[in-house]
Design goal:
Helix content: 25-40%
Shape: globular
Distance between the termini: 62 Å
Strand content: 25-35%
Radius of gyration: 27 Å
Mean pLDDT: 91
Low-confidence stretches: 1-30
Structural class: alpha+beta
Length: 677
Amino acid sequence: MPRLHIVGGITCILLAALVATAASAAASATTAVEYDIAVRIDPVARRIEGRSVITAAVAGELMLVLGRRFEVTHALIDGVPLGTSAAGTASMHAWRIPRSQRGPRRIEVHWRGELAPLDTSLDHRQTLGRIEPASSAAGTFLPDSSGWYPHLAGTLARYRVSLELPPGQRGLVAGRLVEESDTAEGYRARFEFPFPSEGVDLMAGPYTVETDTMRGAGGKPIQLRTYFHPQIAELARKYLDEVKGYVEFYEAWIGEYPFTEFSVVSSPTPTGFGMPTLTYLGIEVLRLPFIRATSLGHEVLHNWWGNGVYPDYAHGNWSEGLTTFMADYAYKEREGPEAAREMRLGWLRDFAALAPGQDAPLTAFTSRTHGASQIVGYNKAAMMFLMLRDLLGRETFGRALQLFWREQRFRVASWVDLRRAFETASGQDLRVFFEQWLTRPGAPTVRIAEVARTRSDSGYRVIVTLEQPIPTYRLRVPVALRTEGGEEIRMLDLERGRQAFTLEVRTRPLEVVLDPDLRLFRRLLPDEAPPILRQVMVDRTVATILLPESGEACTTAEMLATKLQNRAPRIISATNSLPAVSILVIGLHEQVDTWLARHQLPARPEIVQGKGSAQAWTVRRPQGATLTLVSARDAVALAALVRPLPHYGRQSYIVFDGAKMIERGTWPMRVQVMKLD
C-alpha cells in the first residue's frame, strides 16, 4: 500500500507502511507485476464496478486480496475459475495462488460494490484512522489500503487505470494522464504509472482543473495541474507557481524529478495525503496561506524520498526524517538562523516531553501512529541528518544525497544503503555514527560537570569537564567559550562517561555554555526544557483531574481530555494528594483557582490572567513532572477548545477567545552555563 501523509496544520503524518514481509517481497518483484484496471464510479449512488487484469511474472506463491465490501462477479486465474475466499481478515477477502513455473500468470477479476458515504464532519485524526473507500457528489476517495481493487499483497507493480465518471465529475490516480474526454455522457480518463508502485489511490470530485507546464532538469516537460473544488478555484495559480519553485529547488539539490507531472487535488474532508505525482489536501487546509510555504513542499519532496525511493520498512523508515530535514527544516534555514534554531528547540522540547522509555529506536519506526512516534521518526531523524551534515559539510552531504538518488531510484532502500552513500561520498567510516543514532532508543544527556580557569603562556587555559550516562555515546559537543573578547565555539569529542577537555584562549574567559545553538540531539535537563502542552499529549503516565463534578461542563472536560491525549484519560480524584507523574487539570476559572490554592501551587500566570474565554498553561513541578491546566469561563468556552487545543502542543501557554487562538508562547529555555570565577 502506498505511503499516505496526512496534513494537520503543517504536520505531515504517515498513514500506512508496508509490513516487513511485504517490503521484502516487493524488493524481489519490482518489475514483475502489472495491473490493467478499468473502473466506473457513480458517486451519488456510491456504486463502483470494475475489471482488473493482473499479469504476474512471479514463480512463488501469491496472495490476491480485495476489500470485503466488494463482490467478485467473475474471476479467472490462467483461464481457471477463482475459488471462494480461503483466507483473509475482517476487512479483506484473500485467495492464495500456488507457486507456478509455467511463466507469467494472468489473473482477471470483475468486481462491484457499494462505497461508504463520505463523512465531512470528521476531523483529521478521525480521517487518519478511516480507511474505507468513500464517495459522494462532493468527492470520492478510494485509498489503496481499503482494498477497493483486487491486487497482489506485498508486491510492487506497474499499472494502467481507465476511469469513468458521470458528467460534472473528474478523477485521477497517481501517474501520467494519457488521455481524457469530458462530454455530456460523462468523464473518461486513462492513466499509467510505468514504475514499480506500492499501490493505487483514486480521487474524484466536481473539480475545476487548471494546468501549466514547466521544464525540468535536462529540458523534460513536467505537467502541473490543480484539481480544485469551485470554491477555491482562484487559488490555482498560486499553487502552480509554488510547485514550480519546489521542483526546481529539489532538482538542483537531489537530481531530476522522477515523474512527468504533479497535481494538487482538493478534498472535501479536513485532511491531506501525499502520493506519487500528487498531493490530496482538504479544502480548508488549502486555504491556509502557510500551507504553500510548508506542507506543499514537503509533499513535493516525497516524490524523491518515499515515492521515488521506497523505504525498507523491515529495517525502519528513513524517508520521513530526511524529508522533514530537507523540507520543513530547510525552509526555516531560508528564513534565517533564528527560525532554524527555534525549530531545533521545538524538536528538543518535544523529545523532553516524552516519559523515559516511551520512544523506540529509529530502526523500529515505520509510520506515525501517535505523537511519540512522530517525535522519533520525524524530529529525531531530521536532527540526525543535521548532525551528519555538520560532520561532513554541506558539499559532501549534497553529493551523498545525489549518489543515493542515482543508485536507489525506484528501489527499496534501507538505512544501510543510505549510510553507504554517505560513506562513499565522504570517504569516512560512519558505522558508529549511524548505529548509535539508529539502534538505540532515547538520547544522550550531557551536562557540564565543572569548569576551571588558569593562566597560560598564550593567555588562559580553560578545563571543561563533561558528563554523560553509561552506556555512552560518541558525540561532537559544541561548547561556547565567552570571553572578554567575544565568543568562540569549540567542538569537543566526548566518548566517555566523564571527560575533561583543555582549551586555550587569548582573552579572559567569563563563562562556558553547552550547545548554545542547539545542534546536538539530546535529552534536555529539566532546567533546560520549558514545560509545554505536548507533555500531556504524549506521556502515557499522565493523570487527569476533572474539576467539574457533573453536568455539561463535566462531560465536555472529559471529551477534551480524551482529545488531548488521543485515548481514554486516566482520571483521578481532585481531592487526592498529587501523584509524582505529570498531571492534566481541566475546569472552570473559579474551580481552577480554588484547586491551585488548596494545593499551594503557583497561581494563574499574569500573562494569561483575565484574557479571552479560556486559557491553558504549564507549570514545572519541583520533582520535574509537568502540571498542565486548562481553564474556561463556562461550559461553552470549554467546548470551543475541543478541536483547536490539540494542535498547540508546542506552547507553554495559550489563550482562546471561543475557538480562536489570540495569544500563545513558550516559557524561556535555560541553556547550561557555567561562570568562571
